[in-house]
Every structure is written in structure tokens, then in C-alpha cells.
Amino acid sequence: MKKIVVAVAVIVLSIGMTGSVFAQKKAVNAALKSINSGKLDLGVENIEAAILNPETMSLSNTWIVRGDVYTAVAMNPFFARKYENPADKALESYKKAMELDPSEKTHTILALKLPNLAGAFYDLGTEAFSAGEFGAATLDFEKSLSVTQLMGEADSASMFNIALCAANDNQLEKAAEYYGVLVAGAYPMMGIYNGLADVLIRMDRKAEVAPLMDLLVERFSADSTAYVTAVGIMLNLGDNERAEVILNKALEKWPTDPFLYLAMGVAYENSKQGEKAEAAYKKALELNPDYAEAIYNLGAFYVNQGIDIQNQARNLPLDATAEYDALSAKANGLFEQSIPYLEKIVAAQPNNVDALNTLRGIYIQLNQMDKANEIKVRVDALTGTAE
User: Where do the H-state alpha helices sit in 38-59?
Assistant: First the structure.
């Protein structure tokens, strides 16, 4: 009889243990169901209890579900604000699941779930970047990349964003590293070359920029924008000779492209090579007389040149009368040159208030007050300030 009693006791004990395990697995299932029901608070409560319970804390599935719950929290704008770093907790959970069960089955399951988590980190990075929080954005994009790497992939878009955000956050070594990986992998995006060039210049590694620009025009040889970018960067570095070489290559391929000459005009103007800038703008207009951007840029070029000379005149000593008069006359000559271009712009774009105000300022400078007053009437009507 005693043996029978003992046997019954063992059976009862076994049933009790099974019921406890079942109860804990029920909590995991409840957490999982909370994702579809939208009761994420309850899901967090259940899954946090499950990972603390000895009977379920060592089960890979418990941590997979925890990852699912926190991924859902991170992707929900309302719940994401209620919990601290939910995406990080999701990543931690998936890693723990792999640690507990590194089988092919676990990898297959997570391969279906990790893209959502990568997307959650990517969205966080985008939000931080938009808010100007470049350090936080860098970290979020790095986490997005780490998730895709868990899947055995390399997310080039995240790499680019890491480099861009790190550069904005003055993490130059990190920016150069990620831009460099993308260049080495021939990632098909011109922006990485421009971005890397900027970082290298800021790091005082200017000698590396020229070969990078050569690589840019080699890889994007069918796109005139690549040549324009390379020329602009080399001109800004003061390497006019190499810029001319790249420019000539571009002109051989696109001798009648007005955009190319417009872009060259901008690059020359930025590098303080006024005569070449003027010639480039004029060539663009020779190829396309109605090219609005070239018309405006040439008009603005004359205005800016005139203002520079006018400022020189104003900075002269009071007794330098003759020199002052000469510079003032030269400035006014440039202002007069700008008028036909500005007038053409406002004729084509009658609601362009900026162009109208610029033209009005030139008329005032040249004491053409009747024309200036006509422009004022038009501007007042457009801006709602007419009396």
C-alpha cells in the first residue's frame, strides 16, 4: 500500500509541474496574441513575466516572442513613447533566441521577422535625422544595419545613411569608413563620392580626393553630372589643372549640352574665376537662348560682381575720390549689364518676387526711379502690401 501511495504522489507532483509549465507557455502565447489584438501593454506584461520565470526563460521561442512584441511596440507611434528603447529590446531578444537555439529552424524563423525590426530602426533613424539629431540617427541606422547583418545581408542604404549622419555629427572617421565601403563595393550612387570627398577634405586628406574624382567620372562616364561634380570639387580645392582636364573630357562627350556650361559657370563662380564663369553662362545661352537658369545666373553674376566692386569703393579712404568714382562707375556698368537678363526673367516669370526685387534694386542704384516704382507696384500687388 505504501508503494501505491508514493506512486500516486509522484503522479500528482508531475501533473503539478506540467500545469505550471503550461501556464507559463500560455503567458508567452498571450503575449504573441497581443500583437494582433493591439493590446501591447498586456503583451509586454506577459512576456516580461515569461523571461523571468525559470520554466520559460531558457526557451528560444520565449525570446522570439519577446522580440516580436517589442518590434510591434517600436513600430507603433503611441506605444513606442511608453517604453524605453523597444527596438533595442527586440534586437536583444532575437540575439538571445539565436544564442539559446542556433539551429537552422531558428534562423529560418528570424529571417522572416528581422526585416520588420530593421525597418523600425531605419524609421527611428529617419525621424532623428529630420529632427537634426545626427548622433542618434547614426546609432539607429547602425542598428538597422546590424539587424540585416544578422540575416547575412549588407544593407547599402543604411551604410549610406550612417555615413551621411556621421558626417553631419562630425564623426569623420566613421563617415569615411562607411563611404569607403560603399565606394569599394561600387555602390551605384554618385552622392557617396561627393560625401566622401567632403569628409576627406575636412580630415585634411586632400590628396585622396583627386583619385576619387577620377573614379567617379570613370564609373559614371555616361552622366554629365558626375563630371560637373568632379570639376566643382577640384576647383574648390584649387586644382584648376585637373578640373580643366575633367571639363575637357566632358565637353568632348557633350559639346552642345547647355546644362554642362551652366554647371561649369556655377563652379567657376564659386571658385572666384569670374571671367570663366561669365563665358560659361554665355555659352549656355548661346546653345539655348531661353535657358531660364542660365539667364538668371548671368544676371545675378553681374549683380554680384557689381556689389563686390561697390563694397571695395565704400572701403576706400575718404580722400581716394578718383579711385572711388572709377570703381563706382565700374559697378554701375555691371549693374547695367544685368538688366536685360533680369528683365527677361521677370517677363517670363511675372510672379517671381525675388527677381522683381532684384531688378527694382538695380533700377534704384542706377537712378531709374520711374521703372523702380513700376516694379514696386507689381511687387506690392503680388505680396498684398498695396495701399
Answer: 40-52
Q: What is the pLDDT of residues 278-292, one digit of tens each?
A: 999 999 999 999 999
Q: Which of 145, 130, 60, 131 is nearest to 97 (CA)?
A: 60
Q: Give the SS3 label for residue 108.
A: helix
CB 230 within 8 A of CB 216: yes
Residue found by looking up cell 511675372 in the block: 350
pLDDT tens digits, one per residue of 317-374: 988 899 999 999 999 999 999 999 999 999 999 999 999 999 999 999 999 999 999 9
Distance CA 138, CA 199 (A): 16
Q: CB–CB of 285/295 below 8 Å? A: yes
Q: Which residues contact 6 (CB under 8 A, 6 or more apart)?
A: none
For residue 46, give the C-alpha cell.
506577459
CA 199 – CA 176 distance, rounded (Å): 6
CA neighbours closer than 13 Å in the CB half-sphere of residue 74:
27
Tell me: pLDDT of 1 over 50.
Answer: no
Looking at residue 208, what DSSP letter applies? G
Are the CB atoms for 187 and 163 separated by under 8 Å? no
Residue whose C-alpha cell is 555629427: 169
* 381 vs 152: CA distance, rounded Å: 62
Q: Hey, how many other C-beta atoms are within 10 angstroms of the C-beta on 336?
A: 15
What is the rounded distance in angstroms from the CA atom of residue 356 to the CA atom of residue 347? 10
